[in-house]
Write a structure and sequence with these properties.
By secondary structure, this protein is an all-alpha fold. It has two helices and no strands. About 0% of the residues are buried. Keywords: ATP synthesis, Cell inner membrane, Cell membrane, CF(0), Hydrogen ion transport, Ion transport, Membrane, Transmembrane, Transmembrane helix, Transport.
C-alpha cells in the first residue's frame, strides 16, 4: 500500500463525515445557538426595560412619599390649629362657667346676708322688747304693738 492511496481513502470517510455533519448535525446546533442568543438578547432587553421601569417606579414612589409628607404636615398643622381652637373654646367656656358660678355664689351670699340681717333684726326687736319689758317692769303685748315693732325693724 501506498501512503498516497491510504491518504485518499481516509479522505473519503472524512469528507462523508464532514458533509453529514454540515448537512444534518450543524444546522440544529446553529439553530439552537441562534435561539439561545435571541433568548439572551430578549432577556437583556427585558432587564434593561425592567431597570428603566424600576427607576420610574422609584421616582414615582419618591414623588408620592414627598406628596404624602406634605399632606401629613398639612394635616398635622390643621390638627394642631383645631386642638388650639378647642382648648381656647374650653378655656372660654370654663371662664364663663366660673363667672356664672361666682355670680351665683355672690347672689347666694347676698341673700344669706339679707336673711341674716332679717334674722338679726328680729332678734334685736325681741331683745329690745324684752329690754323694754324689763325696764317698764310690765309685759308689752306684741300683737298690739306690731306696728311699732315693724318700724323698729326697718330702722335697724
Amino acid at each position: 500500500m501506498n501512503i498516497n492511496a491510504t491518504l485518499f481513502i481516509q479522505w473519503i470517510p472524512f469528507l462523508v463525515l464532514a458533509w453529514f455533519t454540515a448537512r444534518f448535525i450543524w444546522p440544529p446546533i446553529t439553530k439552537a445557538l441562534d435561539e439561545r442568543a435571541a433568548k439572551i438578547a430578549d432577556g437583556l432587553a427585558a432587564a434593561d426595560k425592567a431597570r428603566a421601569e424600576l427607576a420610574n417606579a422609584n421616582k414615582a414612589a419618591g414623588d408620592q412619599m414627598a406628596q404624602a409628607r406634605v399632606e401629613t404636615t398639612k394635616l398635622i398643622g390643621d390638627a394642631e390649629k383645631r386642638a388650639a381652637a378647642i382648648v381656647e373654646e374650653a378655656k372660654r367656656r370654663a371662664e364663663e362657667e366660673g363667672a356664672k358660678i361666682l355670680a351665683q355664689a355672690k347672689a347666694d351670699a347676698d341673700q344669706q346676708v339679707v336673711r341674716a340681717r332679717e334674722a338679726l333684726r328680729d332678734q334685736v326687736a325681741v331683745l329690745a322688747v324684752k329690754g323694754a319689758e324689763q325696764i317698764l317692769q310690765r309685759e308689752v303685748n306684741a300683737g298690739v304693738h306690731a306696728e311699732l315693732l315693724g318700724r323698729l325693724k326697718t330702722e335697724l
